[in-house]
Amino acid sequence: MAEINAYEGPAEAGFGDYVALLKPRVMSLVVFTAFVGLWIAPQPVNPFVAFCAVLFIALGGGASGALNMWYDADIDAVMKRTAGRPVPSGRVTSDEALAVGIALSGLSVMMLGLAANWFAAGFLAFTIFFYAVVYTIWLKRSTPQNIVIGGAAGAFPPMIGWACATGGISLESLLMFALIFFWTPPHFWALALFMKEDYSKAGVPMLTVTHGRKVTRRHIFAYTLVLAPFAIWLGLTSVGGPLYMAVSVVLNVMFIAGGWRILRRSEEQAQADGYKVEKRYFRLSLYYTFLHFLALLIQHWVGGW
């Protein structure tokens, strides 16, 4: 009897693939900053309501990730960093990713409105639209300022958390937005310095592709200088205090110093050591936002100014 060969195609999607579709690493920052924004707001929130609010904000962030993966499947497939994602690898179909994104968008917005308030729910709906349509569909493939303008989507969660508690916007929530908004470009441009070829192959007009690494280095340093005053200003508001201020000053000195080292490097030096300084700066940027918001949280517990 002839041996029947098993079909060798894309592996069937498992639960982990659908979790990966929601970009859990990105979602973790969304969840944490939203939680901090909600918890340090002046109006106390019932812990169960706070848990539900953060859960639905997380689902909204996951919906954005699924819609992003649905639309970007073609460029994800040619980039080394993203080729293993569920859609380009074939484990999840584009239609499934779209369905998950739309379903979670509607569910998260509706439930956040019921759990917290409709202002926060509307804010979440706008954030999902901004990331999926304004950034992913429009900006990402059309301008080197994609990550600058599109970075607003990742900066909204603490404002949404604050709105869940207060029903509105304040100077404090705007400064939390500014901290993430001005941090995003140097964070991603540092990555682009040593991943330029990926973006070139995918045809994404990242700044390193359209203007070169030298210009990108200048932009990174410029944004660290713009970022620092907003981060420190937040420490002077009602949510700040000496602990936050100390953490912020140290982190911003390190961030500016790292940006200066990147600025002073030639491409020959970077290639010679495998972009060691740029990779170190990128790792620092991963801790920068988390430690700022952790400091805000601890400052709230111990008392501010």
From TrEMBL:
Q: Which UniProt keywords apply?
A: Cell membrane, Heme biosynthesis, Membrane, Transferase, Transmembrane, Transmembrane helix
**Which pathway is this protein engaged in?**
Porphyrin-containing compound metabolism; heme O biosynthesis; heme O from protoheme: step 1/1
Enzyme type, top EC level: transferase
Q: What does the UniProt record say this protein does?
A: Converts heme B (protoheme IX) to heme O by substitution of the vinyl group on carbon 2 of heme B porphyrin ring with a hydroxyethyl farnesyl side group.
Classify the main location: membrane
Gene3D superfamilies documented for this protein = UbiA prenyltransferase
An MF annotation (GO) of this entry: protoheme IX farnesyltransferase activity
EC no. given is 2.5.1.141
Q: What membrane topology term does the record carry? A: Multi-pass membrane protein
InterPro entries documented for this protein: Protohaem_IX_farnesylTrfase, UbiA_prenyltransferase, UbiA_prenylTrfase_CS, UbiA_sf
> What more is known?
Carbon 2 of the heme B porphyrin ring is defined according to the Fischer nomenclature.
Q: Write out the transmembrane intervals.
A: 26-42, 48-71, 118-139, 146-169, 175-194, 220-237, 243-263, 284-302
| Family, similarity comment | Belongs to the UbiA prenyltransferase family. Protoheme IX farnesyltransferase subfamily.
Its assembly, as annotated, is: Interacts with CtaA.
- Protein name, please? Protoheme IX farnesyltransferase
What does the record give as the reaction this protein catalyses? heme b + (2E,6E)-farnesyl diphosphate + H2O = Fe(II)-heme o + diphosphate
Task: Quote the Pfam families the UniProt record gives.
Answer: UbiA (PF01040)
**Compartments it resides in:** Cell membrane
